[in-house]
Every structure is written in C-alpha cells, then in structure tokens.
Hints:
The chain is an all-alpha fold. The protein has helices spanning 4-35, 42-66, 80-136, 142-158.
Amino acid sequence: xxxxxIKAVVSTQSTGGAGSSIMLVLSLSMTADLIGIxxxxxxxxxxxxxxxxxxxxGIVIALIQHFHPNEDCSxxxxxPLAKYYRYVMFLIPGVSAVCGVLAxxxxxxxxxxxxxxxxxxRDATDALHTQSVGSTGAGSSGYGIxxxxxxxxxLDSTS
Length: 159
C-alpha cells in the first residue's frame, strides 16, 4: 500500500497536470479569439505568443537559478535549499494564478466598460437622429421630395 506522502504527491501532480492542460487549452482558445476573422495574421500571432511564452519562461528560470542558495546540506529538514524549492514551487504558480485572475477580471471590466460606452454612444446618436428627423418633419426631407416628385412624374407619364 502506498504511503500518505506518495498519495499526496500523486494527487497533487495529477491536479497540477490537469490544471496545466486546462490552461494550455484556454490560452490557445484566447489566442484564436484574438485572431478572430483575421486569419491572414494567425501565424504571426501564434508565433509571437510562443516567443513571449519562451522569453518569460527563460526569465523565470534564470531568476530561480540566480537566487538558488549554494549550500551543501546534510540535514534535509534544516537545509535552506529544501525551503527554497518549496517556496519556489508554491509562490511562482500561486503568484502567476493570482496575476492571471486579476488580468481576466481587468479584461472583463474593460469589456463591460466598452459595452456601456458603446451603448451610450449609440443611444446619443439615435437621440440626435430622432431629434433631427422630428424637427424637419417627415415630408420635408430632401429624399422624400425627390421620391415624391419622381413617383408623381412617373404617374403623369403613364396616364
């Protein structure tokens, strides 16, 4: 029978793997949404996203290696190296998740703000259009006179 620590590791890694798969699918679908109907730029967008991913991962790995403690430890429980990796494995994904949630919330907020602003602009344009049509009258618009005069002249020529 497996010990408790191995069960904890297997369940943690399984959850982490499922989360990584979900994040990969979500990032690809968000990239596809970013491209939208502009398929001629799709290869560039996917390439730029991949490059940005590789650069940020490289920076994170370089920072982890830079701050790595260079101590030889005989006792694992008091070794700063074990604590360092414990914090790295906890803080980097945790901070990344919090940043991701904040970015999604910011995007949702900006999207809602943009929709409200578009609705206000559309309402103001409709109000101006209704006001201008109402003040000139339905029959006094230039198009109405041309249409009425051409239809009456065509009636005169057919009779």
